[in-house]
Write a structure and sequence with these properties.
Length: 305
């Protein structure tokens, strides 16, 4: 699967941490079993804030619903439970800001490549699918930034690995993601140029395969997006842990039409969630511990009412 939005390009990583039943039987650890929300998850009852609701564009306010475009699977941001319902932290955050604005949330599952055109056409109101915000896309859209994500390595518990000193090690990745193309490949080439052993890369079609390889000891480490790493660790029954620092961080954002009044409304609602602590609670349900914002942002700049 192609990475829809790398740190410096135009694709997003397609990472899902959902093990197959056979992998579950082998590992009994890194899995969401496609069953639903994590243990401890709860649906928050978020009150409408009238002054923020007043910021909503009139057409959306009159309809009473706000529609997001998303693309599954990309656990824990967006994926389907065993009943086919789309869940994840992107969905929970979008629903929470909708509630602050006095709206019902409607979720449209789309091909990733169709979400931005749908935002432009007005068939969805904004995108909520782990879009990386960068200058290229800001030419056509404004982004309300809600989380910083980067590359994060994981290793077996008690056996840390230095991502900058991995020559000769075996590292699992999801194929065609930045973890493969921008992280492991260049590092392995640098090892060879320095006269050292290359990194042995185990590339899988999905992140669940990469995580399973790490848990089973087939790999010394895994390179993945930080939310995926956090989610895998939380589900691994203590068998794996993050190792080294997060790097190449960039913001995830909700794209809206350029100069749309929806952008400030979303930012104000998000800022409200930050201030009440509900933002941190929602991400905490999904095991997201890194990259949390302290202030809502529009196009990388702090939101100022």
């Amino acid at each position: 699967m192609l990475f829809h939005f790398p740190r410096t390009g135009s694709t997003r990583s397609r990472l899902a941490v959902t093990l197959t039943a056979s992998a579950l039987a082998l590992t009994a650890c890194v899995t969401n079993e496609e069953t639903g929300h994590p243990d401890g998850w709860e649906e928050l009852d978020i009150a409408t804030v009238p002054e923020i609701a007043a910021m909503v564009p009139p057409a959306i306010a009159a309809d009473g619903t706000i529609t997001i475009g998303t693309n599954v699977p990309y656990a824990p941001a967006e994926f389907k439970d065993s009943a086919g319902v789309i869940i994840g932290f992107d969905i929970d955050l979008a629903r929470a800001v909708a509630q602050v604005m006095g709206l019902e949330l409607e979720v449209a599952d789309q091909d990733f490549s169709l979400i931005l055109p749908s935002v432009s056409a007005g068939t969805v109101d904004f995108g909520a699918s782990s879009f990386t915000d960068n200058e290229e896309r800001r030419q056509s859209y404004d982004f309300v930034d809600y989380l910083y994500a980067g590359i994060q390595w994981s290793a077996q518990t008690g056996d840390p690995v230095d991502p900058d000193n991995a020559c000769g090690l075996t590292v699992s990745v999801q194929r065609n993601t930045v973890s493969e193309t921008d992280d492991i490949n260049p590092k392995s080439e640098a090892c060879v140029e320095a006269g050292m052993e290359p990194i042995t890369k185990l590339a899988y079609d999905s992140a669940d395969g990469a995580a399973t390889a790490l848990v089973l000891g087939r790999a010394d480490a895994m390179s993945s997006d930080s939310p995926v790493a956090d989610f895998a660790v939380a589900r691994a029954d203590g068998k794996i842990e993050t190792t080294g620092d997060l790097f190449d961080a960039a913001p995830f954002g909700w794209p809206v039409p350029k100069q749309s009044s929806l952008g400030p409304a979303l930012a104000a609602a998000l800022q409200h969630l930050v201030e009440t602590g509900d933002y941190e609670r929602i991400l905490g349900f999904w095991g997201i511990e890194h990259g949390l914002i302290e202030t809502a942002q529009i196009n990388g700049e702090p939101y100022r009412p």
